[in-house]
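Much of what follows relies on a compact textual record of a protein's fold. An example makes this concrete, so a full record is given next.
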Amino acid sequence: MRRVYVNEEWCLGCRLCEYWCVFSASGETHFPFAFDGGAKPPAGIRVEDHGSVHFAVNCRHCDDPICLKGCISGALTRDKFGAIRVDKTKCVGCHTCIALCPYGCIVSSGDNMPIKKCQLCAGKDYTPQCVSHCPNNAIVFEEDEDL
């Protein structure tokens, strides 16, 4: 399965990955319209800033995902490509998946979807937007060699 990987040594902390993630998931055709009145909704990828060290945190689409096992409503599923997807029509907002994720990759959304996580640009047939718009090529989309 192809996964998103981040090279922390190359991450500039610019947060462009977050903005492009939000835009891609919004369904909008114009970039500014994805940000309701300037407020930036949570992205499926987020940049952590610890002084001079910056790194992006995103769903790892685990081989044995505990979030999927703990989802009481069946809103989390694995698609045919191996990505963990969220069905917003089934999510009840219990946030069990948030508590279970050992990497902190699932967050409360606050918008029309109770949770937010990387969905690899929802299975679109292209490179995820966080990868294609990283100015320093710190984020890559590659095959997991361990599989």
